[in-house]
Amino acid sequence: PDYFMDAMKSIGHRRTTPVQRQCWPPACAGSDVLAIAPPGSGKTLGFLLPAIEAALKDHRENPNVGKKRPGAPAVLVVAPTRELTLQISGVCNKLKKAVPVRAVAVYGGASQEEQEEALAQHTSQALLVIGTPGRLLAVLESGALQLDRCAMLVLDEADRMLALGFEEQLSTIREALPDKDSGRQTLLFSATFPKAVRAIGKTWLRKGFETVKIDSEKATVPKDDDDVNVHMAIVEQTVHVCAEHKKSRKLMKYITKLRAEDGRARSRVLVFANRIKTVQFIADLCKRHNEKVSTLHGTMKQNRRDQALKDFKAGKTPVLIATDVAGRGLDIAGLEYVVNWDFPGSIEQYRHRVGRAGRQGKKGAALSFFTRKFTPLASDLVKLLEKDGHFVDPNL
Q1: H-helix or E-strand containing 261?
Q2: Which of 233, 290, 302, 321: disulfide with 358, CB 3.0–4.6 Å?
Q3: What are the Helicase C-terminal domain coordinates in residue numbering (predicted)?
């Protein structure tokens, strides 16, 4: 549709990315789509604009449905985390300048009653509901959400949802939807394509679905408007093999070096740890070295998590220490540095963490500490580093 580019420009995007160009035509033609695209490839708009088009089309055909059945959306977007849900709904609401749509986000850690009130509001606008599996089930069970007239379903980060154990919840949500053979359209997005994703693809998608696969080298948006080529996000990856007790000194040496190079403007550093206890340890360490820090993990209340992200994005706290709750789906514009204090449990998760830096064609750097207990991952890590042309620690 012609308004897609106007909508893009309204939020500061002047060029489309490969995933957008390849997903829009089949999605807008009514086909199911399976899209494999890495972080930073522009996939949110890849599914969101076709989803908005589906909602607007339904609204044109059923103009009074928002008043008669306010909690019965034409489009449902399912995402694995609260942060990603808020990010998607935030983009959708920014697009309101260009298209008359309303997005309601439902997620855990916030008032279910308030979310149900938002769903119950009678509206003359097309409605999209965006939510996490657990809270979606809760508002389904309460009757505040009805999915029997849902024309389009979007599953974002399907691989992540399966890794987090949401398969059973997703199946229950599917039972509340119109059957796929009734014409209900599904867009399934995933950063990776393991067997589990292939399996749910067969379950959720209609026969003849379109497959879009974007290589990381072709994934990201141009660095500026004069650049006719689409560039990869260049992340300089450094892996240090070290003992656990040496991490503190190495981290502070690294941050001190960055600060010496920064001058007055302090670069932001996202530090990943595998345990909440470790997050607090690193935060205390950084504070002792006069670093302003925020923390982010799954047991924090939603308002504190939102504030931590807000402060980090604004540069008020240039260091954010997080568990993997922040590892996927967060679009932190201009993030320069990622540090893996704890190496993640898989190479796939390593790629997702590192992908937080250097998004949308900008350069970034990632430092990872690799201890002996992760030895089983060494061989695959070496292959990955060599393939991307990075230095490989001889101790690996």
Answers
A1: helix 247-262
A2: 233
A3: 250-396
DSSP state of 360: T
Confidence of residue 154 (pLDDT cuts 50, 70, 90): very high
Q: Where are the domains of the chain?
A: 3-218, 235-387
Residue for token pair 């229950």: 172
Query: 49-71 burial by CB neighbour count: b if 16+ within 10 A, else e?
Result: bbbbbbbbbbbeeeeebbeeebb
Q: CATH topology of 3-218 equal to that of 235-387?
A: yes
Using N-to-C axis directions, what is the helix angle for 112-120 and 133-142, rounded to 10°? 60
Q: Residue 187's beta-bridge partner residues?
A: 33, 154
CB 368 within 8 A of CB 378: no
Strand segments, DSSP code E, in 48-202 are 75-78, 101-106, 126-131, 152-155, 185-190
Amino acid occupying residue 189 = F
- Please state, in angstroms and as integers, the Cα–Cα distance from residue 72 to each residue in 46, 76, 116, 149, 166, following that order: 24, 10, 12, 7, 23
Is residue 119 within 8 Å of residue 110, measured between CB atoms? Answer: no
| Residue of 324, 325, 322 whose CA lies nearest to 311 | 322
Q: Which positions ≥6 away from 270 have C-beta within 8 Å?
A: 312, 320, 322, 326, 332, 335, 337, 338, 339, 356, 357
Confidence of residue 230 (pLDDT cuts 50, 70, 90): very low
Burial bucket for residue 386 (CB in 10 Å: 0-12, 13-18, 19+): exposed
pLDDT tens digits for 94-126? 888 888 888 999 999 889 999 999 999 877 788
Tokens linked to 370: 């690799």
The pLDDT score that the predictor gives to residue 233 is: 38
CATH fold of 235-387: Rossmann fold (3.40.50)
CA dihedral for 31, 93, 213, 75, sign (positive or negative): negative
Closest CA to 339 of 308, 374, 363, 365: 365
